[in-house]
Amino acid sequence: LDTCALVGAVPSRFPWEGDTVDLDTYFAMARGIQEKDLDGTDEEGAGAQAMEMTKWFDTNYHYIVPEFDADTSFSLSSTAPIDAYTEAKEMGVETRPVLIGPVTFLLLGKAQDDDLEVLDLLDDLLPVYREVLDELADAGCEAVQMDEPVLVLDLDDAERDALTTAYNALGGADVDLHVATYFGALEDNLATALDLNVDGLHLDLDRGAGQLDAALDHGVPDDLQLSLGLVDGRNVWRADLDALYEPVEQAVDALGSDRVAVGPSCSLLHVPVDLNAEPGLDDDVKPWLAFAVQKLDEIVALARRADGDVEGTEATFEKARAAREDRATSDRINNPDVQSRMANVTPEMAERDNPHSQRRPLQRDRMGLPQLPTTTIGSFPQTDDIREMRRQFKSGDISTEEYESFIEKQIADTIAAQEEIGLDVLVHGEPERSDMVEYFGRRMNGFLFTENAWVQSYGTRCVRPPIIAGDVSRPEPMTVRWLSYANDLTDQPVKGMLTGPVTMLQWSFVRDDQSRADTCRQLALAIRDEVEDLEDAGIMAIQIDEPAFREGLPLRESQWDAYLDWAVECFRLASSGVRDETQIHTHMCYSEFNDIFEAIADMDADVISIEASRSKMELLQAFDDFDYPNEIGPGVYDIHSPRVPPVDEMETLIQKALDVLEPGQMWVNPDCGLKTRRWVEVRPALENMVQAAERVRETQAVA
Is 640 a catalytic residue? Predict the structure, then answer.
């Protein structure tokens, strides 16, 4: 989004007249516009849909997807990076500005015209980048970092040539250019990266451990500095400094200390800020961990030791050794009961009794569902009252009885509201949950939790990932009490909501002393116990959310099969212990699914709900091409925008979906959960959604 503003890549549906991208336009691109002008005056048809949002590579950070068409033109339309550099300089701090590289910016965008290749826009984009570099140089800037993480993806020759072209054009600027790659190894893109017309190249040696050898074997140009990304920028465990020091020595011996830099594997955006600001962890656990500030200490220790300061860095190295030894033998890590259960998992545990074609009529009959059944993804608004009561309960200002009575009232009101709106399958609204991962993790063994360890997810939204430190198990039911209460309030089916094992894994900081696959299997077994308890309590539909399923996919296609095998297995292990008439849902959002449809089908969920409104049902074509056999709920309105879409707009999206789906296969729902929205937006949007579904049902009946 910042780069769109910087280069003036504003889609034409937004009321921007060129020149500087102002704050209203900036927010409009990210949040959409309600049916009024930006100045607040009502005007029919003045609404605009927000730009699409998806995951940043294989992280839980989200980005706004640039849009390009034949009329796209670029111009310097924001001075934000120049202003930030100048502000720091005036405070006496010399910084290195970081920009998204031009090739990554284009390749992560989407062409809106079928005959447009995004790289055809590179020649028009590069002069704007050069203008930014020149303005930074005029402000006194000495070096700029250009992030080109697409270099760790599978690239074709044209894409590699584009990188060469870009840095031949930009390399003449009066600032040093440092290209940063991260999240993987360069592999077949290594030669291209080493030959770029730049002053420095950053390698992620955490996720691409072998590429230092490859770079040195290839030959590093004499005028190129190598930056070694050694300290893991995406996890919170204290580094093994003895092991990380070996590549520093290797690089210094080969290149000289003046051509070697030491850093984190990637931006420290992905970890919390400071362990010393964290009161929520026991003193015996804290030595195992390193947040961003502590990771900087580790980086400095590695660099200082390479400069010969062994004595001054030995205390930091010794702390790392002691932490690893203590952690390996801790009772917090090892649970023999969990390890025994893992050893007894059988392939049959990951199979439903019968295929979906036989399960579907049983489920529809039991739940009394119409064509195009309507539902939501699970959560309803987390109001100020809910947050305040949760705060009072945590601080001990109110009793358990008072808090639970309040939660019951919220659930009852949510059930009643859904009945009035006319939804077909209801949810309890999740008022007792603060976060979809934290809530479940706090009810499992093997997790650690923090109070201040926030990490940015998108915009101003932050999450506080739990830490999976040891073997995972579920000591008692986690959701049965609230779902049973909701189920008793209505004659309509109520859907239970759980977070899936892959998402629990992806959205936590995960232990690094066993495979991620084994940790995920432990999570799956814990969730399986909850699924079976919900079924026994009379819950007819159970949704196991996996919004991070696609996020976990390795960036290189050659590594996909291994991941998909265990990820699908874990979902099925969690979901397959129920009878045929119990309907299993899953939810996925803000990801590209086109290349993993076979794996999604292999998950064998009865119903999958997906984000689809921002992309205007674009990905449904892939479902059609694959001939997806089960049921689908493509989102018909964007919950990340406060905009209330009109009935006609949602009706159009439903009809568009039915161009590729059978009516008996389709559900109608929002894109995602509603907890970040307000009731004043949620109620009219859902009323419009139900009305749109009813209109289409009538059309289908007439047809």
Answer: yes
